[in-house]
Design a protein that fits this description.
single chain; mainly alpha; 9 helices; 67% helix; 0% strand; globular
C-alpha cells in the first residue's frame, strides 16, 4: 500500500502537517491573548475588583478566524493551507485588500516539511507519532516566544509529562534517563539564571526557558542536554551578535532564547546520537 512505503508515509504526514500548521497559526496568535485576558482577570480579582467583561469569548476554537483589519470572516475556501494564500487570496484579505503576512503560509509549509521528514526518519513507529507531537509543540513555542517572549506553561508542562509518558515504554530513552533529564534540564538553566542575576543584578532569561529544556530532557534524556545547550547557545549568540552588529536589534533589547532551544531540541531529536558520537570521537 501507498502509506506503507516510506515515501507514502512521508506524503501523508506532510499533508497532515499542512492542516496542523494552519491550527498552529491559530495557537500562535490566540494563546498569548488568552493568557493576557486570564492575567487581567486574576489581577482584578486580587484587587477585589470585578473583571471587565470581554465583547466575545476567546479560545482556540472560537470565534471564527477573521481579518484583524476589517473583521472579514475567513471562509473554508480561504482557509486551505498555502493554496488559499497563493491562488485564492493572493496574499491579501478578500474583504479589505490589506496584505496578509507571509508568515502564515511559511508556518504551514515548515510544519508540513518537518512532519514529512519526521515520518520518513522514524518510519511507521510510535517514535514517529511522539516526534510529530514534539515537533509541532516546538514550532508553536518558538513562534510565540519570538512574538511575545513567552513560553506558555499550557504547552511546556503537558509536553514534559507527555515525554515522560512516552519513555515509560523506553520510546526514546529509558525512564530514569528521562526523569533525570527533566530535572537536570530545569536545574541547568535555573542555575545559570540565578548566577547571572547575582553577578549582574539582571534577569538573563525567563522561567519558560527552564521548563522548555526540562521538557526536552524528559523526551530525549539527560544525555542530550549538553548538545542542546551548546547548540542553542552557539546559534543564539551568533544570531544575537549579528543583529546587534548590523543595527537591527538594540543592545538592551532582550532576545528570546526559546526559538534556539526549540531548534536545538529538534536537531537532537533527529541527529543527536550521531552528533554526540562524532563529538566524542574528536575528543578521543
Amino acid at each position: 500500500m501507498f502509506v506503507e512505503s516510506p515515501f507514502g508515509l512521508a506524503v501523508m504526514a506532510g499533508l497532515l502537517g499542512l492542516c496542523i500548521g494552519s491550527f498552529l497559526n491559530v495557537v500562535i496568535h490566540r494563546l498569548p491573548k488568552m493568557m493576557e485576558r486570564e492575567w487581567l482577570t486574576q489581577c482584578a480579582e486580587l484587587r477585589g475588583e470585578k473583571a471587565e467583561e470581554e465583547n466575545e469569548p476567546l479560545s482556540l476554537a472560537k470565534p471564527r478566524s477573521r481579518c484583524p483589519n476589517c473583521g472579514h470572516h475567513i471562509s473554508a475556501w480561504e482557509n486551505i493551507p498555502i493554496l488559499s494564500y497563493l491562488f485564492i487570496l493572493r496574499g491579501k484579505c478578500s474583504g479589505c485588500g490589506k496584505p496578509i503576512s507571509a508568515r502564515y503560509p511559511l508556518v504551514e509549509a515548515a510544519t508540513a516539511l518537518l512532519s514529512a521528514y519526521t515520518a520518513w526518519h522514524f518510519g511507521p513507529t510510535v517514535q514517529a507519532a511522539g516526534a510529530l507531537l514534539l515537533v509541532w509543540a516546538l514550532i508553536a513555542l518558538a513562534m510565540i516566544d519570538l512574538d511575545t517572549q513567552l513560553l506558555p506553561d499550557s504547552i511546556t508542562l503537558p509536553w514534559l509529562w507527555l515525554g515522560l509518558g512516552f519513555n515509560l515504554a523506553t520510546t526514546y530513552v529509558d525512564l530514569p534517563s528521562a526523569v533525570v533529564g527533566a530535572m537536570a534540564g530545569y536545574l541547568a538553566l535555573w542555575s545559570v539564571f540565578w548566577l547571572f542575576k547575582l553577578v549582574t543584578g539582571k534577569e538573563g532569561m525567563g522561567y519558560g526557558d527552564f521548563k522548555l529544556l526540562a521538557a526536552l530532557g524528559a523526551w530525549l534524556g539527560w544525555q542530550m542536554l549538553p548538545s542542546i545547550i551548546l547548540l542553542s547557545s552557539l546559534v543564539g549568540a551568533s544570531v544575537g551578535i549579528s543583529l546587534i552588529v548590523f543595527g537591527r536589534h538594540g543592545r538592551n533589547i532582550p532576545i528570546p532564547f526559546g526559538p534556539y532551544l526549540a531548534a536545538a531540541g529538534g536537531i537532537a531529536l533527529f541527529w543527536g546520537n550521531s552528533l554526540t558520537e562524532r563529538y566524542l570521537g574528536l575528543l578521543y
